[in-house]
Structures are given as C-alpha cells and as structure tokens.
Design brief:
The complex is a heterodimer of chains A (152) and B (420). Chain A is of the alpha+beta class and 152 residues long. In chain A, 35% of the residues lie in helices and 19% in strands. Chain A starts with 10 loop residues before the first helix and ends with a strand. In chain B, 39% of the residues lie in helices and 16% in strands. Chain B has a seven-stranded mixed beta sheet with strand order 4-10-9-8-7-5-6, sandwiched between helices. In chain B, strands 13-14-17-16 form a four-stranded antiparallel beta sheet, covered by helices on one side. Classes of the chains: A alpha+beta (152), B alpha/beta (420). At the A-B interface, helix 1 of A face helix 12 and helix 14 of B.
Chain lengths: 152, 420
C-alpha cells in the first residue's frame, strides 16, 4: 500500500465492520432508540435489555460507514453485563478520548475500544464514531425522540 | 487494476487547449495534501480560483476598497465602475438582453429564494401548483416548500428513470392550467444529468407557465444563452465558476422582474424613504438591498474574463473527453457502480462501491491527496430514489487531467485493499 491508513482503519475496525458483533433487531428489547447523522445519512437503531440494573443484552442494526459500524460493534461488546452507571462512565471516558485535546485517561483500560482513538485525527469523522454512543446516552436517559448528531 | 487508457500521450487533448498553462493559473493546484500532489475532484461543491481572480480581490482591497453607488469620492467611483463592469460581463456571458436583468445575489440559493418569495408570493395562490423534479438540489426544493406552506400551493415532482433522466412525458402530464411555475435544474449535481431544458421551457411556455432554471452546475462547463433558451429565470453561483464564494446571479426577464415586489428591504434598493411610504429603486437595484460582496462580484467578473479567454466551447469539449475517459476508467473497477448514467451527461461521476461506505472511501482517498465529495450532495430525494444513503462523487473541471483520473482509480483500488 502506498500510504498508511493503519491509524484510522486498524485491523480491529476493518474486522468489526466486516462482521459486526451484536448486529440485528432484538425482538424482546426493553427499549430501543434510533440515532441519525443527517450530514452523511448514517442511521442505526440501538436495542437494549436490562437484567435489573445491568445491561443483559445490547444490539444494533442500521447502516453506516466502517467507523460507525465498528464503533457500534465494539461498543455493544464492551457494554454487555455493565451497570447503567458503569456504561455512563465508559461513555464519558470514550467521549473524552475522542474529543479532549489532552485526554487524561489510560488508553489501556479501553481494550479494543482503543482502536477508535485514531478517529481523533479526523475531525470530520468523530461523529461517525460517536453516533452509537450518543444513541446509548439517549437510551440510558430514556430519551424518546431519535438522537441526531446535529443536536449534540 | 487501474485502467490506463493512453493517458500519457501528448496529443490526447484538443488542440489549442493548453492544460499545463491552465493548471499553472490555479495556485492551489501546486500544493500537496498528506504528502501527495493535490488531485482536486470536488468542483461540483466549489471550484478553485485562478490567480487572475485572487489578484482582483487583492487589488480591490489594497487600492480602491469603498462602498458603491454612494460616494462621490474617487475610490467609490472606481469601485462602482468595476462593480457595474462585472455586471456587464455577466450579462454578456449569459447573453441577457440588458444589465437590468442581472440581479446580483449571494449565490444560487439566494437567487431561487428571491424568486420563490417575490414572484411566488405575488403570483402563486392556494391550490396553484409548482413543478420541480426528483433530481433537484435542496436549494431548488425547500424554497418552494416554504412557498407552499405560506400560500397553500401544491408541489408536484417530475420523477426520474433509472439512468437519472427526467421523464418528460410525466412532466407533460403534471403540467396543467393550475401550474404557476416550473423550477428545474440544468445539470444535476448528484447525477451529472444534463436536462433537456429547452424542451421543458417550450412545453411550459405553450401553457404560459414561466420556468426557473438552476444553472449552478451548468455555467462553469457550458455556454449558456438565456435568450436562446427563452428561460424566465436563470440562477447560478460565482464560486462554482472559479469566482469568490458569496456571489451569485439571478437572471430574470425584465418584464417579470419589473412586476415583482422587492424581497429584502434596506439601503440601495430604495429611491425615497418616508415613514408613510417608501419608493423603490429601478432594476436591478430594487433586489439588491444592503452592501453586497463588492470585491467578490468584481472577482466574478475576472473569473468570467478568465473562462472566456479559454472559450466555453473549448472547455466543454475538453471536459467531454475527460468525462469519457473517467467513465471508462471507473467502469473498469470491479464492485463500482456509477449512479447517474444519462445519455446526456456533464463531467460529474457519482458512484458507490460494494460494501464500502462513501465516507470511508473519501477519507482514504484524502490520504492520497485526492479530494472528492461524499454524502447525499444536498439531494436526499435522489439518494432515496436509488435506495442508497450516500454516494462518492468526482466532479471535474477544466484543470483536471487524465493522469488525475488514473490517480483516482489507483486510490480506489487502494481503498479496496484496505477493506479486502
């Protein structure tokens, strides 16, 4: 290859785009919410099922670019079994990872999610990576109307 | 593998078209992006500016920056003279009958909104009908929707076929005694289709319906003659025509413009202002409230001088050859599908690739120094028509080359490798 796209399109991202985990409609979801990026047409629906305070299952479907699909795939993998409070904390940390000028967080603890850190260098693509997270935030806050990247 | 269709021979371009000279006229084309020479294929969004335009802006601000139509001082006289000279260049460029028919706006969008609000609110009433097409840019949809909301008029949409051509029979079917205006794009920014606007205009005129043409994508590539077309309104932007952003043109037939009320109120558009009643200026100033983009308009005049010096017919011929080359080259890529394959097409190539989202494609091409547009191109109904969320679009201009098309093809093959 005549250039290096590894920073953004890491193997983990390419893999999760090709075979997204937790993909598909969840029939017995407790809640679902649609997220939409009107600038590019990316659209996903996030489904969630709780076991008490814990996220018992979380899935998504929809269409989008590799970054948004991989991000949703990695996010759902990371959140299974987490409590709402833990999920909210991961959301905050991930947001900081993508947008803070000097994020004061240990990248190690993100596990596979760290693969998305390269998006920092592509300001026009940050919304692709964060769409699913904002949709999650809306779900946890019990928002009823669809989440749009342009309302954030 | 990339297709190389004789891209390295010297006789590949029409004679008299000095592509090296033209490229050297555009300073930005010599820059690098991500370590690679810039390949700028986003001319449908905005074009690059030749040195002649850049220097015109610079000279205005350095030597005679002042307001127009007001002062008696030398600078204001000079600015007014240059500003009005630009209007005359625009008039000649599209062969309008007089400079009174040339209203300067901030762009195509502004021009369409002017017609929708001024002509539309005067002449279009409840249950009247407006015809647009399925391939319109949002700027030729939403102003009419707003007008419909305000008046109770109805918006009718002419469908397109799979190739991306409007279905003229459907247009004829929609055209009736309730139709009060037809607004149609000359060349589709999302599909590249060149519409049969002369035929549309003649059909509409046979029923006494005026026609507005959105010419934003046409004027940079083809000779436009508003008198030969007999269109009632023709709108375009300066920045796609190698001029500054924030400039645009509304051509309107004088009789129509005269009967229309002002849209925006303010300075320059009035003759007298009293609290009981104000009277309005003559055409075209009646529609030009406030201080315009003076430097920009003078710069647009320089852009018109520039393309005129090359010749619009020469530009069209050069681009037709380039489009042919690019169409063949892109068609040679497996998994690539062109969106918009009209028989009569301008140098715009919209496409999708199997299992690769246009945004990923755009980001990876950018790493190769190649600038294309990705997204819905402000034409969401077109995306809906083809059931795709977005396309990638390479839109060519007079300074693009076959070598650049080869680089695009190489870049697209690299994209496939990343996702292989």
């Amino acid at each position: 290859m005549s250039f290096d796209m590894k920073d953004l399109y890491q193997d983990v991202i390419v893999d999760h785009n090709r075979s997204p985990r937790n993909f598909g409609k969840m029939e017995d979801a407790d809640r679902l919410l649609e997220g939409y990026n009107p600038l590019c047409g990316d659209r996903l629906t996030l489904y969630i099922k709780f076991d008490g305070d814990k996220i018992d299952n979380i899935q998504f479907d929809g269409s989008g670019c590799a970054i948004s699909v991989a991000s949703a795939s990695l996010m759902t993998d990371a959140l299974k079994g987490k409590t709402k409070i833990e999920a909210d904390k991961i959301f905050g940390d991930f947001h900081m990872l993508l947008t803070d000028e000097e994020p004061q967080i240990d990248i190690e603890k993100f596990g596979k999610l760290a693969a998305l850190a390269g998006v920092r260098e592509y300001p026009s693509r940050i919304k692709c990576a964060s769409l699913c997270w904002h949709t999650l935030h809306g779900l946890l806050e019990e928002t009823h109307s669809a989440v749009s990247t342009e309302q954030l | 593998m990339s297709a190389r269709l004789n891209a390295n021979t010297e006789s590949e371009y029409p004679t008299g078209f000095d592509i090296e000279k033209i490229r050297s006229d555009f300073p930005v084309l010599s820059r690098k992006v991500n370590g690679k020479p810039l390949v700028y294929l986003d001319n449908g969004a905005t074009s690059q500016k030749p040195l002649a335009v850049i220097e015109t802006l610079d000279k205005y601000y350095r030597e005679y920056n002042s307001n127009i139509h007001r002062g008696v001082h030398t600078l204001s006289e000079e600015a007014t003279t240059e500003y009005e000279a630009a209007r005359k260049k625009i008039k000649n460029f599209i062969n309008a009958n007089s400079t009174q028919e040339i209203v300067l706006t901030s762009g195509t969008t502004d021009a369409i909104n002017l017609v929708a609000q001024s002509y539309g609110r005067t002449n279009i009433k409840v249950d009247d009908e407006i015809i647009i097409t399925e391939m319109e840019h949002h700027s030729n949809i939403v102003p009419w929707q707003l007008l419909c909301e305000q008046t109770g008029a109805k918006l009718n949409v002419v469908p397109i076929n799979d190739a991306g051509e409007i279905i003229v029979e459907e247009f004829e079917r929609l055209l009736n005694e309730k139709t009060k205006i037809v607004a149609i794009v000359h060349i589709s920014n999302a599909l590249g289709t060149i519409n049969p606007i002369k035929e549309i205009i003649d059909l509409a005129h046979a029923k006494n319906v005026p026609v507005l043409i959105d010419g934003a994508q046409a004027v940079p590539h083809y000779k436009v003659d508003v008198q030969a077309l007999d269109c009632d309104f023709y709108c375009f932007s300066g920045h796609k025509l190698f001029g500054p952003t924030g400039t645009g043109v509304l051509f309107g037939k004088q009789s129509l413009l005269e009967a229309m009320p002002p849209w925006k109120g303010g300075g320059d558009m009035i003759r007298t202002v009293r609290f009981d009643k104000s009277t309005y200026n003559d055409l075209p100033y009646k529609f030009e409230a406030g201080t315009p983009h003076i430097a920009g308009v003078i710069g647009l005049g320089a852009a018109i001088d520039y393309v005129s010096s090359i010749g619009m017919d020469a530009i069209s011929a050069y681009e037709a050859d380039l489009l042919d080359y690019a169409t063949k080259a892109l068609s040679s890529i497996d998994d690539l599908r062109l969106i918009g394959i009209a028989k009569n097409k301008a140098s715009i190539l919209s496409f999708v690739m199997e299992k690769i989202h246009p945004h990923d494609l755009g980001t990876i091409l950018d790493q190769n120094g190649i600038a294309i547009r990705t997204g819905h191109h402000c034409a969401m109904p077109v995306m809906e028509r083809y059931k795709i969320p977005a396309t990638a679009r390479a839109s060519l201009a007079l300074y693009n080359t076959k070598q650049e098309i080869d680089l695009l093809v190489d870049g697209l093959n690299n994209v496939k490798k990343v996702f292989a």
